[in-house]
Predict the 3D structure of the following.
Amino acid sequence: MVNDPKNDDIADEESKNEVIEMPEETGLENSEEKSEDVGSEQDNKVSEPKKPNIFKKFLGFYKTKKKIAIPLTILLLLAILFGVPVTRYFVLGKFIKADYYVTVVDSVSYKTVSGVTVSLGGQTVTTSRDQLKLRVGVGPHKITAQKKYYKDFSQEVQVPFKQGRNAYVLAMVPTGRQTSVKVINKINGKPVSKTTIKVADTQATTDDNGEVTLSLPPDKETLDATLLADGYNETKVTITVSDEATDKNNFQLVPSGKVYFLSKKTGKIDVVKTDLDGSNRQTVLAGTGQEEDTNTVLLASRDWKFLALQSRREGDKARLYVIDTSNDMLTEIDSGDASFTPAGWHEHNFAYTVFRNNVPIWQAKKSAIKTYNADSKQLTVIDETNAEGTSDMEYAGETLGSIYILKDGLIYTKHWYASYYSVYRLSGKRMGIYKAKPNGTDKQLIKDFDAGNSGYISAAAYEPEEVYFAVYNNSATSYYEYHDGKVVEAKDVTAGSFSKFYPTYLLSPSGQNTFWYEPRDGKNTLFTGNQAGQNGKEIATLSEYIPYGWYSDDYLLVSKAGSELYILPSTGTIDKEQILKITDYHKPATSFAGYGYGYGGQ
């Protein structure tokens, strides 16, 4: 019988149905049954929903939420590792750092040891006298320390999250002799902390008491050393190697700086400088032999950066110069057929008056006030006199009075005078009190008077920033005072109070303090006070000294017998033996009473 292809599917289906109904015992039936079961499972997978894939979901979350997923992963790993104590600090040290404090001491004296090379956690530092602070990863580390004449140190330490107040104490065992050294300020006697002592290929630093214990070679009796401290001159000393304290190892440091003065030690008037204790004397400008004893003047600015020198070094006329103390360079300010009268320094502006010999008395510009800026090297004419007339017998002219240097500028006077035959020319003329900035700006006539009825004006500085004026006229004398930028009548001032002794208040470089003296019982009492000259404190009583100037706000310069220069602390002293002599010097006859903005004028 030939099969009909169209009926094959029907035949197969019938055959399948027959297999399902056959008894279970036959082997063929079991085999076909398993085949049918497989087919049924596959049919079920197609029809049932699939279960979610957790790994694929986490991977998708990790890719799309990295900012959240990565930190969570790290925290998970750390949590796992925290469970293992051995690895906990090792792992933390990779991520977390902490401050670790170390104090290095001598195991014998138990004093701090400076100049020790300490290594910890990949850092290497050298100790000063202060506690070390190292920032390293938490966990186990090896700390090592080395210094010459001490045994090398090495130890394992654990750096915790927080060390607390107690620093790790690293005790160095000395191999040399324990030698104590003390360093003080030569002028005020106070200890000098943080002084570096370099000796025997090692170094150490003094503590707050200016003391340090050195471990030095035991086979040496003495050793050369160098002392270095900020604000002090480098000093060479010889240390006595000894286990016992000795005064031989007490050393003095001189504060850095130079003081300048005139000296006639060579027979000529030289400009000389020394250290503040008078050592390292050097000639800055040698005299030529043409200098005049009474007409050679040296005035220092308050910061000692510039010096104004009036001197006749050549020819028959004195000239004005400025010396830059940073390089001791000499620059001429002014010269000519004229005489000069220094007034003083206002910051770095030097003020002076000029009297021109070649200008007739009846012509204008006979006299002038000038300033010289030492920084810019700029010369400025502040004011000049006026005049009128035809000859020495028939004229009227202005003359300049005293110049006072105050915080807000220059205060000066101008008044008129006339020849015997020209008094009529004074009618309508005004004399007055003026002020101006040192650079020539803001010049003002702050008070004027009738020149026909008044003779002249004199002045006296009675307090810092305060000036009295006496205006003399035909009938009486009137008194005025300059205060807060104004001139007002001072009715309580009399001839006696105007002419009495008033101190010259020397202003400190910072402008915060003043220095002056008052004569009492034939001696001089020295005072320091605030910028207004108030709250005076006696720093030396019934002394033979008078103020010369300041050197910084820490030290005072005083002179004795007009030829000896000394230095003392600005806090004063009750023992004259503690006043340190710098030098003998040449003082000209000229004084600058009332001038408080520079030094060397008294």
About this structure: The chain is about 15% helix and 45% strand. The helical segments are 8-20, 27-47, 54-64, 66-82, 85-95, 495-499. Confidence is low (pLDDT under 50) at residues 1-48.
